[in-house]
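[User] I have long wanted to understand how a fold can be written as tokens. Those tokens are not coordinates but codes from a learned vocabulary of shapes. Could you go through the record with me and say what the backbone is doing? Thank you; the sequence and its tokens follow:
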Amino acid sequence: MKLLTSTLFLLTLLVPLHLSAKDTILISGSHTVGNLLIKPNKALIESAINADLSINENGSGQGLRDLSEGKCHIAMISSPLSVVASEMNKAFPGLIKVSDLKVFEVGQTSVVFIVNKENKVERLSKKQLQSILMGDVLNWKQVGGADERIIVFTMPRGDGIRSTVKEKLLNNNFFGVYTVEVKNDAIAKKMVSSLQNAIGMCTRRTLDDTVKSIKIDADLDQTLWLVTKGSPTPKEKALIEEVKKLSKASI
């Protein structure tokens, strides 16, 4: 028995360190970043940095909140840090301290506006689109479409797609009172595909043939970022660099 115990003790000393339990990196935030860059490459990233990933797609604003409250290691955002932080601090004053955060650009996409495939409208001017989103134009007939009430679908405050549209298209004015908020652009696409009088928004890289994109006279390029609280740890830095590399390869 003593011999067996001694043998087991010696074997534990010989087990290489790399066989110890992996670190788990908690990532929270933008559905766009998670869906485009992190989730499709999860296995590759985990292998490259020798760590497990736990991904929670709950919106850019909530990602920053989780990071600030110590509930995740890295936040995913798809609108500028200052914009997302401002939106969150309106709801939770003083929650996001931008000076405490480090932001890293990891990719690019753009926002597109989508309508039902049966909608006859093909193009909207910047002014027409602004008027629809702000609630000044309420019927498709006013912009060359059918005589139907317009339903606008967007994401919650703090979401990167919504923040990009608000900043670059609406000049930081508010959406109209008849806007319907949905969790993410995947749900927006489902709603638009089923309602002939709906208009919504999604990223160009997630656009599919279930809906029709509208041509608009506006530049809605969207940069994607990862954010850490303070300087990233070596494994967090390795993850960020791996995501950058994979993002470039996919373009």
Confidence is low (pLDDT under 50) at residues 2-20. The two ends are 62 Å apart (CA to CA).
